[in-house]
Design brief:
This protein is mainly beta. The protein has 6 helices and 26 strands. The protein binds zinc ion.
Length: 424
């Protein structure tokens, strides 16, 4: 069956808690007919010439073609050289010339586009010559996506037209400690409220924040709300509907994405090669390509960084009095004994040193000096939300939860617009 992706533009209203909801959705103002401005200039006042710098062309050649001549060109170049070196214009870069509308069609403004967002505006229409840096305004649009899992999260996200970095945000950031995305089931579903950034209203410039999300896995709702508890550090975290932080003290995996758990912790593992005898596996093997970065799953001090026997090149990190983690078979190590590493720091790269049949990292999780299965541990959560903040938090998430739990009902309320994409 072909999955159909469709786009709905819905106008929504929440009559019961209108005030709260307004805050959380984007307001798009009705545009009145008004003059068009580009780069701060009223476009209708000029003849607009858009072109791309050809190979062999210089700033002087281009201006000359548009009726600005030497020595004026030298004067322009000289007076702006601290901001913009005209010798550095490169073939292939787009530019815009705003020329006078009269019969002379003389260039007055030269706009050099460094990339999609940044430009330099050289204005020489009056006696005062200026060069200014320009950044295109970015519009942030709130979007809602809903999907059902058929095989994997990435496939569903893909079918919704969402790009992989949003999938990674969901799987490896927000829910990394809450859900095992390798174990999602057909029929699990999700809803996300997230931001998309646009340049000049139409050119996609990446994702903003994921503001809230809910995952329904095995009939259980896993909520995630982005909330800044500490207004000074202003570091956002994700919390569930009761204010429990979703992040744990440990990452679920020492590989960021694109790995496969090739062997789990198993004390009763039998290996045919050894005559079907029990060869316990006290680690979890994450298979990944050679050279894939290996991350410290929690902050701590490196207590071993060496090469030894079947372990090959490995690193061991002590996190506190209870927990240590160890990473085996590295191609290369990046950290030294005694070094302090932060959660998520790259400590080495996947390899196949020591006893291993293929490239993977054997991840060993030590608790009180014994190797245990990290997936069976009730791992300590990161700092919980302060009690004094909880009432504010619960108030904050009320409209967000309503948004996640309800379908949008179109009404006659033009100022609130949100776009929903969903699978059919
Ligand atoms: Zn292993």
């Amino acid at each position: 069956m072909k999955k159909i992706v469709f786009l709905l533009v819905l106008i929504i209203s929440f009559s019961s808690c209108k005030k709260d909801v307004k805050k959380s959705v984007l307001l798009i103002k009705k545009e009145k007919p008004k003059p068009i401005y580009r780069f701060g200039y009223k476009i209708e006042d000029f003849k607009v010439i858009q072109d791309t710098i050809k190979s062999g062309e210089s700033f002087g050649i281009i201006l000359d073609r548009h009726h600005v001549y030497y020595p004026k060109i030298n004067k322009i170049a000289g007076s702006i050289k601290n901001i913009f070196d005209v010798r550095r214009v490169r073939a292939g870069k787009p530019y815009t010339i705003l020329a006078s509308k009269d019969s002379t069609e003389k260039a007055q403004i030269f706009i050099y586009k460094h990339d999609k967002i940044n430009a330099t505006i050289v204005d020489f229409k009056d006696s005062v010559i200026t060069a200014t840096r320009y950044k295109k305004p970015i519009k942030v649009v709130e979007k809602i996506a809903e999907g059902i899992i058929y095989s994997s999260l990435s496939q569903t996200m893909d079918s919704l037209g969402l790009k992989p970095n949003l999938t990674y945000t969901i799987a490896d950031n927000i829910y990394a400690w809450t859900l095992d995305f390798q174990k999602l089931q057909r029929g699990d579903s999700f809803k996300l409220v997230y931001e998309e950034k646009y340049i000049e209203d139409s050119l996609f410039a990446g994702y903003g924040n994921v503001k809230s999300a809910v995952f329904k896995h095995k009939g259980i709702h896993f909520y995630a709300y982005r909330f800044i508890a500490d207004s000074i550090k202003a570091f956002p975290e994700y919390y569930d509907e009761e204010g429990n932080m979703l992040r744990s003290q440990f990452l679920r995996s020492p590989i960021k994405f694109q790995y496969r758990i090739s062997s789990r912790y198993n004390l009763k593992r039998r290996i045919a090669y050894y005559g079907n005898r029990i060869r316990p596996h006290r680690g979890t093997d994450f298979a990944a390509n050679i050279g894939t970065p290996i991350l410290a799953t929690a902050s701590g001090t490196v207590i071993e960084s060496t090469r030894r026997g079947g372990n090959g090149k490995f690193v061991k990190i002590k996190h506190n009095g209870t927990y240590s983690t160890q990473y085996l078979h590295m191609k290369n190590r990046k950290v030294k004994k005694g070094q302090y590493v932060k959660q998520g720091d790259v400590i080495g790269w996947v390899g196949m040193t020591g006893n291993t049949g293929g490239p993977h990292v054997c991840y060993r999780f030590w608790k009180n000096g014994r190797e245990v299965d990290p997936f069976k541990q009730k791992l300590p959560a990161a700092k919980p939300l302060k009690k004094s903040l909880k009432p504010r938090y619960l108030e904050f998430i009320k409209p967000l939860k309503y948004q996640l739990d309800h379908k949008h009902i179109p009404t006659q309320q033009p100022e609130i617009v949100t776009e929903t994409i969903a699978q059919n």
